[in-house]
Amino acid sequence: MVKLQAICLFFLVLNVGFTVCDNNASQSVPQYLALVADTKIASAQVQDFIVQQMANLKQKYPEAAALIDQDMKSLSTANPTLPWQNPADFHTTVFYLGYDPKNMESEYYKQFVPGKTYTLQSSTFVYVPGAIMCTPVFPAPSINIANKCPHITLKIDKFQAFQSNAVLESLFTNNGPLQTQYQNGFFMQQEQTLTQKIQNVKIGNDIVDIYIIKTNYNTDKHIDLKATSQYCDDAKPKETSSTSSKQLDFFLSIMIAALSYLLF
What we know:
- Keywords: Signal.
- It comes from Tetrahymena thermophila (strain SB210).
- The protein is α+β, with helices and mostly antiparallel strands.
- The chain has 2 domains: 1-29 and 233-245 and 253-264; 31-232, 2',3'-cyclic nucleotide 3'-phosphodiesterase fold (Alpha-Beta Complex).
- 38% of the residues lie in helices and 24% in strands.
- It has 7 helices and 9 strands; from the N terminus they run H-E-H-H-E-H-E-E-E-E-H-H-E-E-E-H.
- The chain has helices at 2-26, 39-60, 65-74, 107-110, 164-172, 179-183, 238-263, and strands spanning 32-37, 91-96, 117-122, 124-128, 132-136, 151-156, 194-203, 206-214, 223-232.
- A hairpin with a 2-residue loop joins strand 7 and strand 8.
- The protein is globular, with a radius of gyration of 25 Å.
- The model is unreliable at 4-27, 236-248 and 254-259 (pLDDT under 50).
């Protein structure tokens, strides 16, 4: 009779344990949704794109040659030396959830389908000396994106990757100097060209100059990447994985104890 009760207890604990594990899995919330390119392919393409666009800027703005040369020393290879660094990967953020389950109710999350392939193209280069490099993109096929200015961060120095948003929004939104062109699809047109320097732009606590150059997509180096829609995590909170691990260890201990009683 006692062993029968122990058997029932064993299977009850087993069922509860798997239920808890299933609930933890189903409640897992990604940090953000993104279209992620292959790092190896993207690194080589980004490097060629940056080298040509920096040379174009140097020719257009010879007074900035020393500044550009200084940054290019760090960018002489696909693996830059400090202070310039590659981002964690080359992606376009679709929606930032921040691990908050409430954000799973957003239409951005509901319409997102992982595993789909998109094309990310651009011939526009945005450069903040000593801070960040990025490029606006227009994914195809079309996808609903939360960011006002979808983009890929190419390199980071003083700024963090997320500050690409503020840089591009200062140009293309909020009555920025290129808002009309952006809204009219100028930057989607492959043959259009533009080179401009915007001075004294406030980004966070910094006042910076922003260089932007758009070259002919058909004749110059450009970005043309295949990207896959993915659930992404840069640094998942340790408490989440630790808590799940402790719960699993607890249930396994009870299961082992019950099984030992049955056998011995």
